[in-house]
Amino acid sequence: xxxxxxxxLRRHLIxxxxxATLVVALTSCKKPVAIDSEIVIGEVGSMTGSEATFGTSTxxxxxxxxxxxxxxxxVKGKKLRIVSLDDQGKPEEAATAVTKLITQDKVxxxxxxxxxxxSLAMAPIAQQYKIPMITPSSTNPKVTEQxxxxxxxxxxxxxxGTVMAKFALETLKLKKVAILRDVKNDYSVGLADYFxxxxxxxxxxxxxxxxxxxxxxDFKSQLTAIxxxxxxxxxxxxxxxxxGLIARQAKxxxxxxxxxxxxxxxxxxxxxxxxxxxxxxxxxxxxxEEDKSPNVQxxxxxxxxxxxxxxDGLAAMGYDAAKVLADAxxxxxxxxxxxIRDAIAATKDYSGVTGKxxxxxxxxxxxxxxxxxxxxxxxxxxxxINP
Length: 387
Description:
Blueprint lengths: L6 H22 L9 E8 L6 H20 L7 E8 L4 H13 L5 E3 L4 H13 L4 E3 L14 E3 L4 H15 L4 E7 L3 H16 L3 E8 L7 H8 L5 E3 L4 H13 L6 E3 L6 H7 L7 E4 L8 H14 L5 H19 L5 H9 L4 E3 L2 E5 L5 E2 L2 E7 L2 E8 L2
Parallel strand pairs: 1-2, 1-3, 3-4, 4-5, 6-7, 6-8, 8-9, 9-10
Antiparallel strand pairs: 10-14, 11-12, 12-13, 14-15
Helix pairs in contact: 2-11, 3-4, 5-6, 8-9, 11-12
């Protein structure tokens, strides 16, 4: 029998074909993931640039924490997803990154930055949009002063400066110290000021106060001026890139006084850049890998398993920041910004890798600090200083 395809029949068959195709497409495709099935967290860090180890270590700590949180069901039945942006170590890039995370990626909260100057660029934007922001390790007091949605899980520079000044006076028995600060770095300037204030109150003398700017590589002029004052130690509250070079150039000038510093020294690169010249120097930090507590040793074991290296203090701070945020979101009655903000503010005696964390009225962490000595390329625990 021969079929005759009229125009009407052809149109009908085309419609049936289209309908069948749509049915197949709809039944065979995977069900889309609902928008509310995850909690998106933004992270801003220096993944490249002169302080790249800060960003990398912090990011690794955050990733490990999120992996562990998601493995036990996430928060309120939702998985956490981190959107990480590199600010290249530049405040202006940090500001751009946090704006994108909030306005385009619609993040629930922000983790970052490590450096105070970059957190200061980010904080007003997070505050403007009422998005909770936790910096893992920005220690300048001005950071949390930007508004009631800005928090930190690290100690602040007045405490850190006091720790190192008291260590210099009481443990090392020093009376004359020189200062070499990075004048373009809020962290360095603040820490130098607080060290100076406490050291003088304790009867010590600041024999000279020299300065440099981040990115410089020749410090011999400043070090020559310092050598002329014969200090017993030099307080250098900078970042590891410059500190390592300063240590080597001080040795070349036959300056035998040890260097003292803060948590900005904490990087494997410090030993690589400073070589033998950095041995015998001391700095304050957030934790020590020598801490035998099960909490710390479990973290170190899991981190080494994931990344193949022993975690530094920045990794530990990133881990704690993510865990504190998740703990707050779990306790919050909802995932609304205000509820999360209030829950972070109510954090008390949270058992972190870097110690017990309590958030005070100014949204700063009240916690202890450790002092480490660079000895044979190893950061060796010296003492713990409590608030």
